[in-house]
From TrEMBL:
Residues 288-308 are annotated as: Disordered. PROSITE patterns: LRR (PS51450). InterPro entries: Leu-rich_rpt, LRR_dom_sf, SDS22/Internalin_LRR. It comes from Xyrichtys novacula. Gene3D superfamilies: Ribonuclease Inhibitor. This is Protein phosphatase 1 regulatory subunit 42. Pfam families: LRR_8. Residues 288-299 have a biased composition (Polar residues).
Length: 308
């Protein structure tokens, strides 16, 4: 089993070259970047002498737990993608962390970030989940990231809803490709709360096949790139004007229908209000009865011209 320890750092040729005459303790104290990608590391040991560490590369190893990093209060970038991590533990002391890379692990619940008030980027794509499992988010963790998180990558995690992420109002770059998002109405609602969003990738989701998917999202956002394709301002203006014209026609048609429905049939008008005359319905009935009378009755009135 390979452990990340001070001995491993001492044996590293890349780091040994940077000592520049310093003693090993002095070198460790001055160390800011530590590169141990693809070294078959399974465990993080005691490296607490590296107190000024700001960037740590431990990606493409075999680490199962995040541990022994409580000392790293100056750490800003942590690269631990493509390991075997199952839980987001022991991160609460990394108060200055701005970028966290945990894609390609086995994480099922996003949690443990409530004290990371400066986190700007969170990368959680391609978690190796059990069949039928999807990546879940702790609501308190999401709320704690609401004022800071700008970049979120949750692609390929069987996610079917992003409604809980509506609180992330500072997002500028959002990737959720190859998931199971299907509701365009939900997307429109969430995006209306992300005024800073400029780039989004939802390719590979069922919602992308919905009618007018791209047009509807362009109209309700300030996006400049959607699913890898640039959105020109001319295109946005055209779609906004098209939507406005469509809504205006709809309102006009509704007003016409309402007006037509509010006009009664002429034969039902009541002109006898306040004694102004007989009901036209009565007049109509009288005329009709006259038309139905036999000729003999209609001519029963004497013709004065003949009598004279």
């Amino acid at each position: 089993m390979v452990h990340l320890t001070l001995d491993l750092i001492a044996k590293s040729k890349n780091h040994f070259k940077k000592k520049r005459g310093l003693s090993f303790p002095e070198y460790l104290h001055a160390l800011t970047h530590l590169h141990f990608s693809s070294k078959s590391i399974e465990h993080i040991g005691d490296i607490s002498m590296c107190r000024n560490l700001t960037v740590l590369y431990l990606d493409y190893n075999q680490i199962t737990h995040i541990c022994n990093l409580d000392f790293a209060s100056n750490l800003t970038h942590l690269h631990m993608q493509n390991n075997n991590i199952t839980h987001m533990d022991n991160l609460s002391n990394l108060h200055r962390l701005t970028k966290l890379y945990l894609g390609g692990n086995r994480i099922a619940v996003v949690e443990g970030l409530k004290k990371l008030g400066e986190l700007k980027e969170l990368h959680l794509e391609n978690q190796r989940l059990a069949p039928g499992e999807k990546l879940l988010f702790d609501p308190k963790t999401l709320l704690s990231l609401a004022e800071s998180l700008c970049v979120l990558n949750i692609s390929s995690n069987n996610i079917d809803s992003i409604k809980d992420m509506i609180v992330l109002k500072e997002l500028r770059d959002f990737s959720a490709a190859d998931n199971k998002l299907h509701s365009i109405e939900e997307l429109e609602e969430v995006l209306s709360h992300w005024p800073q969003l400029l780039q989004m990738n939802l390719s590979g989701n069922p919602v992308c096949k919905k009618a007018k998917y791209r047009d509807r999202l362009i109209v309700c956002t300030s996006l400049v790139i959607l699913d890898g394709k640039e959105i020109t301002e001319l295109n946005r203006r055209f779609l906004i004007n098209w939507k406005a014209a469509k809504e205006a026609r709809k309102i006009k048609n509704n007003q016409h229908v309402t007006k037509t429905q509010s006009i009664p049939h002429p034969l039902t008008w009541d002109l006898s209000v306040a004694g102004e005359g007989p009901h036209l319905g009565h007049i109509h009935s009288h005329v009709k009865m006259q038309q139905l009378q036999p000729q003999s009755l209609r001519s029963a009135t004497p013709d004065h011209r003949k009598l004279s």
